[in-house]
Amino acid sequence: MVYCDGKTVFLKSIEASAVIKDYKYIYKLLVEVIEEVGEKNVVQIVTDNGSNYKKMGQKIMEKYHIFWTPCVAHCIDLMLKDIGKIERVKNIVAEARSVTNFIYNHGYVLSLMREKCGGDLVCLGLTRFATNYVALQSMLNKKVGLKQLFSSSEWNDYRESKSAVGQKAEGLVSSPTFWQNCKIIVDILEPIVRVLRMVDGDKKPTMGFMYHAIELMKGAVQTTATRSFQGYHKIIDTRWKNMLLHPLHLAGTNTITNLDLLSLLIS
Question: In angstroms, rounded to a whole number, what is the distance separating the alpha carbons of residues 115 and 120?
Fold first, then answer.
């Protein structure tokens, strides 16, 4: 894919399913593309963050006056993944998943939930943690309806309301601590997901915004985290400094204003 003049266009694809994708092979392909497009027309190459791509990027920069940087969206995904491995976060996500699984595994309860909540929940996934943020936010938005569901006469008369899984789901939805923890996680992840959406969009080139955006994101996460949810900004800082931070991120900062950045972050 080639980004030029405010647009991304498809250049070509390579059938590489039978090839070992080490740095030598990827380097060979990228050199062919650079020569085809013209070195003078290439400013930056963006790839995955794998070690093979990193080594390829170093060789490209040794050969040409071209910058290589890893993918920002992938890096932020990895920040979210690291946060998702924290035991407390993992447990809360598992609790929320158990509620949605119970509801969607029982047709009668699902029908009641749709009636009380006015629609469906976003189900929590097993992989990409950004989807878990969206799912927890969906549960918070339907908190009132979910509490009405598990306190209704229809639920009390339903046979599964006395089962172990039914009692667990009811107990979680009735627990102020469960909702408080969900809210804290959503508030911590919101600035991270907002930056992810910014860099993953195509409204405006974001290279010049990255440095300030990440600094604002770290500050927001540190401010939001309670005593029980500390250390998240350190995860962000580690990924940012060890994987993503690049002189290019500072090169465009003088061309932006706080209003520009704010408009991207809230859009």
Answer: 9
Residues 1, 11 contacting (CB under 8 angstroms):
yes
Measured in degrees and rounded to the nearest 5, phi and psi for residue 182 equal -60, -45
Q: What angle do CA 229, 231, 235 make, to 5 degrees?
A: 125
> For residue 204, which phi and psi values (nearest 5 degrees)?
-160, 140
Query: For the chain, percent helix, then strand, then coil, each to nearest 5?
Result: 70, 5, 25
How many helices and strands in the chain, by DSSP H and E? Answer: 14, 4
CA–CA gap between residue 196 and residue 78 (Å, rounded): 11
Return the structure tokens found at 144: 């009132």
Tell me how far apart the terminal alpha carbons of the chain are, to the nearest angstrom. Answer: 25
* CA dist., res. 179 & res. 248, Å (int): 41
Task: List per-residue pLDDT tens for the chain, 267 residues long.
Answer: 888 877 788 999 989 999 999 999 999 999 999 999 999 999 889 888 888 998 999 999 999 999 898 888 888 888 888 888 888 888 999 999 999 999 999 999 999 999 999 999 887 654 466 788 888 999 999 999 999 999 999 999 999 999 999 999 999 999 999 999 999 889 888 888 888 887 776 666 666 677 778 888 888 887 777 666 667 778 888 888 888 777 776 665 555 555 455 554 544
pTM for this entry: 0.77
- Do the beta carbons of residue 79 and residue 102 sit within 8 Å? no
Residue the block writes with tokens 């600094």:
215
